[in-house]
Amino acid sequence: MAPDARQKRRITILGSTGSIGTSTLDVVRQLGGQDRYEVLALTGNGNVDLLAAQAKDCGARMAVTADESRYGALKEALAGSGIEAAAGRAALLEAASGDAEWVMAAIVGTAGLAPTLAAARKGADIALANKECLVSAGDLFVRAVAAGGGRLIPVDSEHSAIFQALEDDQRHAVERIVLTASGGPFRTWSRAQMADVTADIARAHPNWSMGLKISIGSASMFNKALEMIEAKHLFDVRPDQIEVVVHPQSIIHSMVGYVDGSVLAQLGAPDMRTAIGYALTYPGRSPLNVDRLDFAKLSRLDFEAPDEERFPALRLARTALTRGGLQGAVMNAAEEVAFHAFVGGRIGFLAMADIAEAVMDRLAHLPPAAAMDDVFAADEEARRVAAGLIG
What we know:
It catalyses: 2-C-methyl-D-erythritol 4-phosphate + NADP(+) = 1-deoxy-D-xylulose 5-phosphate + NADPH + H(+). By secondary structure, the protein is α/β, with parallel strands linked by helices. The chain is 44% helix and 15% strand. β3, α3 and β4 form a beta-alpha-beta unit. The termini are far apart.
């Protein structure tokens, strides 16, 4: 059912200070702000000044920093506002386990897994922007959402596009889903050219404004690799039904192909607020102040097959999908360690995929996860092995 416009909807934003979180707050403002939404909690990490400003602006009940050392600074920034300040892992889980009807899960990395799972178990609708929930713990997370009784609504532009193009009564007729990829800043670069790039060069995405982790993931196409694994769990399709096509303009966000040859696509200007707004108002739609497509000005829409030699992350995703078990968790953890090593100047850009592949091969024997502890154990072991390889 669509949210009742006469009642305030209780929401929580996990990761409010990141790019997705700030866009979510802008969407909330556009759709009525405090007249329509009651913000129970905002969470962030080290940027407590922004977190406090956001909490005061939207009238949040609570603001939580995951960094316990920043508690004093957050409490001081909120002094006199009446907004509760809290810090640490326990406080983060408490905020996620509140009475929110809708939770934006936008904490980047494995750190977002436990709080998002807590929100799912409480029965909230989960607007999912955290990739690790499905990449690392897909089967367990989907079961938790179902058991909690909430809905899982993807926020990634590509998965949102598929979600919008899927006809509920025709899921049996889905032949393939096609994830589009911009190709990032190195779409036409050779491996030799990519070998010497720095983090500052890799973060410069041609179409989207995103945080450092997501931007570099787009440049290496690890983001798309993770989206392939997410798609399997989100849409209950086989690995061989998942395709990737490079679409530099980022106008078609993804497509669904049906057995009769029809292909339904979702189009829009590159703006995450469209997907966020759809997740917030689903199954309805509300007006948003975002750019509209002017088809007369679209000179062309280009498509090309991805080059898995230059961007081996896509090949690694297919390996993880084929092997199953905890390979998604292993791949994700190894890539995170390699990412930090790249940003720190300790390894080159191309080495991120080499390290992820080596760790995946070494830990290919891990069985499927029976509980979340298995996921965390695999994540920890993959990080240990990756760190050892980096030295």
